[in-house]
Amino acid sequence: MFKHSKKTIVFLVVAVFVLSLTACGGGTPTTGSTGGGVEESTNIDDVEQSSQTGTVEEEKPYTVEVDPVKWKGKKISVWQTFPEEGDVQSDYGGKSQKQRREEFQQISGATVEIVQVPGEDYDKKVIAAISAGTGPDIVWFGPDKKPTWMLQKLLLPLSDYIDFNDEEFMKNTGWSKSVIDFYTLNGKVYGANGVQLAARIYYNKDLFEKNGLEDPYELYLNGQWTWDKFIELAQELTQDTNGDGKIDQWGYISWITRQWYYTNGVELIKWVDGKPKFGMDDPKAERALQARYDAIHKYKYMPEVWWDPGPQDRFWKGEIAMDYWGYWEMENMKKNMGDKLGMVPFPIGPDMEPGKKSADVAECIGCGIAACSKEPDLAALWLKWSSVSDPESKEAYEKKMADLYGGLEVYQVFLEAAENAVIDEVGGYGKLGDIIGTEIENPVMDGKKTPAQAIKAAAQKAQAEIDNIWKQAEAAGQ
């Protein structure tokens, strides 16, 4: 019996939180984010203007202007759950948050204070401090804070201080348009960050070659990577290899499930006249849920009990052909499998809009300006300045990624897939995730209801939960 699990969702969010540290001073470069150095200055009083500079495809320098006369003596604070010395970014070739902060302080004359708040206390402390007017200038927040933090007016619109229509800036920043779009509500941008971290199918190249099967990555490049082809290959790779009457090699395994919806064009939350609506009351969602059921019960290429024994070890041993897992597993996968490891986005379903090649599961922590900020312009400047990377960091980062992905061209393909990935909005609406899991998905996976029956039975309750969360947040923001 496949059960909806809160633990797996929490694990996904925590893992992504660790890796998704681009916006608030990390400067980890992404494609389109080029940069330069900092103009040398030993005394800010001798400098009329300093800047963080970059290049656009090695042509002209891009500059985020910093006026030390204006900002000297000013101070902002950033509250986060991780230490700035953690150097997560530098592990991937970029400068650490600490290095970026020290550079910015030198050229601006301002102070950026980084405050580490324990993760278990973070939300409670941030909300209390902002409400009291004593909180930070810059905060981190996850997808589950949309729409509540915006409606409760805990955040200032970032778009009031940063021009997201500035094409030159957007070419040079490490920020992702898809992340910015996600953290937009009622036409206002509240959060930004770098490219979102998308899950993907890891696959065992040796098993495909041994069975004379087409390579999934090549199928993807040729626009032929569909559910039908995926199911065909997964069935071929599900085998009783020792003749004992039991399956000991499976075609596919994963604890992540919402890719079935996204790759079939389903919006779990859809927006109608500026308000959120439950999006599963749709034949596309029924077909997606049926495909999940069929993977185990009809086509039987995925085990019903996927977690025991551990799926990762089984994948490395060649007992599983395809494993849909998170970005954070890539280095570990590469270490254990070497050149045998292949990667590809999840295939596209029959109802996906024409021309769209992927829609993987993604999470991304946003960074924005707290409503209590006394220096929102300086906070915005720090965010903007620190999002632009220098050429050395960009080159080192791309080399690291090319090594991991097996070539820069492959990395570029996955950057494109990441921009097409879907950040889950369900977590922002109270018990909606539980309603979907326990009242829709579990009855279907247990064979007690059809997808249409389960969705119809729970749709009204799901919409009521969405409406309730929206109304409560609006009332709190009055």
From TrEMBL:
InterPro entries: Bact_solute-bd_prot1 (IPR050490), SBP (IPR006059). Keywords: Signal. Residues 28-38 have a biased composition (Gly residues). Residues 1-25 form the signal peptide. It holds the Pfam family SBP_bac_8. Residues 28-61 are annotated as: Disordered. It comes from the Bacteria. This is Extracellular solute-binding protein family 1.
